[in-house]
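Translate sequence into structure tokens.
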Amino acid sequence: MDMGMAGRTALVCAASKGLGRGCAEALAAEGVNLTIVARTSETLEATAAHIRRQSGVEVKTVACDITTPEGRAAALAVCPQPDILVNNAGGPPPGDFRNFTHDDWIRALESNMLTPIELIRATIDSMSARGYGRIVNITSSAVKAPIDVLGLSNGARSGLTGFVAGLARRVASTGVTINNLLPGMFDTDRIAVTMAATAKATNISVDEARQQRMKAIPAGRFGTPDEFGRACAFLCSVHAGYITGQNWLIDGGAYPGTF
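Result follows.
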């Protein structure tokens, strides 16, 4: 299927590895020119070089913390008017809500709610003026089924979800769509850290911890960044213009509900 995106431009956040990289690679495979953002320059440049070799598209890099005003300014200076915006940032740490400080909440909100909103605000009007735009926010399956120890993530990401629900309907007639991708368990560095912590806490091996977790997923496995990226690419394509304001749960069937 021709996604109809060749020659478009995309700004992809937290794209040096994991789900962000999966999205960047899938977009590049469709001929989309990229500006990719991450904090660690060395990893970012290695990813950019790989994507250039694989796809031949233009890949610009911005090593910055996208959750800060300075980082957003740096990214937007390089890619001020993207056709596609993929918002992504690492999740806040788990814990008991009683131990979360005011500063913990502010950091979570800045990272997982306010930064995406600021980037949307900076880019959406130019998308509307051109009659085409795709905004995809990578959130979490915890938005659909909250996880007790992820209170910071539950709260901040749910706030973004509510904001998007209203805005998506306001701009739909201009050719701009806004959707959220809700990942479950994916085989990334973040899950590796989680599995190591689980193994240590339960006195089992990391492999045993992984196998136990996968058994709880109907698909019987973790997802891959590649398949996540392809879902993102479809939402960004010309074929997804009638999909907006939606929360796509990608979790191998782990969520048991109908709605």
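Note: The two ends are 29 Å apart (CA to CA).
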